[in-house]
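Much of the work behind modern protein science is quiet bookkeeping, done one molecule at a time. Below is the pair of lines this work produces for a single protein:

***
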Amino acid sequence: MSAASPSDDLSPPSAAPVQVPATVAPHQTPAAQAAAATLLARIGMGLVALVALIALLSTIALWQKVGGMKEQLARQSTEATAQSMEARTLARQASDTVRDAAARVALIETRVAEVALQRSQLEELIQSLSRSRDENLVIDIESAVRLALQQAQVTGSLEPLLAALKAGDLRIARAAQPRLAPVQRAMQRDADRLRSSASTDSAEALQKLDELVRSVDDLPTLNAVAVRGNGVNAWRPEPIPADAPWWQRVLLTIRGEARSLVRVGRIESPEAVLLAPEQSYFLRENLKLKLLNARLSLLSRQMDAARGELGQVTASLNRYFDPASRRTQAAATQLQQLQQLVRSTEPVRIDDTLAALTTAAAGR
């Protein structure tokens, strides 16, 4: 058996397959034992080389992995440092911004307080100006309404008062002040009430009074021998026919003279029948004066006095004048109509408007 060369020792174990004998003979020669030892040494060296190669490869891979991890850690550390520096910069900027914002907020709060103070002062000034304007408006409306009320009470016409209430309503609506809304509602209620109660105008009553004053002179009294009823004088002698014989004419003449000597009648009002012509004149003038007094009372809105005067005129008309006459009956009808007009006419009142104006002028 020849000795192995160095090139054979340096060849890798996998180059030549080694067949391990299953059993070693108990009695081998020294050469065989040396060859077996050499073979075992080669196998051990191959195994050691293989383990060393695997360890080297593992070490290289591990080193590469550790190097990658170092690079990644270094990169992450760099990025973290950059982010930290950026975060510090941002934090410094945020701190500066917060400081600036705090300063601005403090300045804004100061300005807001100043603006609030100026606003409160301006509101007080506006309220004082508005209050003075409202007071002037209320005073003007109240004076106009009171003047129109006096004019309506004197003349008996509601048109000036309604015009004053309408003008006051328009001025309040143009002013657009909620504080004056109760005054506006009160004026509207009074205007509606006056329009509803203005159905009976005093002008009609004044016209009827004037007609009665003119017709007093034509009213027949009870003591007048006048034409009554069918237009024939009851005390006049009967007419004598023209074709009557002489004896009939004599008889009719004697009969008429006899009837004119004695007159028989029923006297219900002796004072009316016993009136002298001069007293009849003063009676008519007294009736005219009473009617004129009723007219003045109606103009001055004294309804009780007007009703009293009309009642006296009615009593005198029923007592001293002929009730069967058509003129007397027409005068009595007019007096009844006048009584109804005066009774239905009430004094002009605008209590709601005056109370609302007083409340508004007091500032409540």
User: Anything to note?
Assistant: Residues 87 and 242 are 154 Å apart (CA to CA). Residues 1-26, 225-233 have pLDDT under 50 and may be disordered.
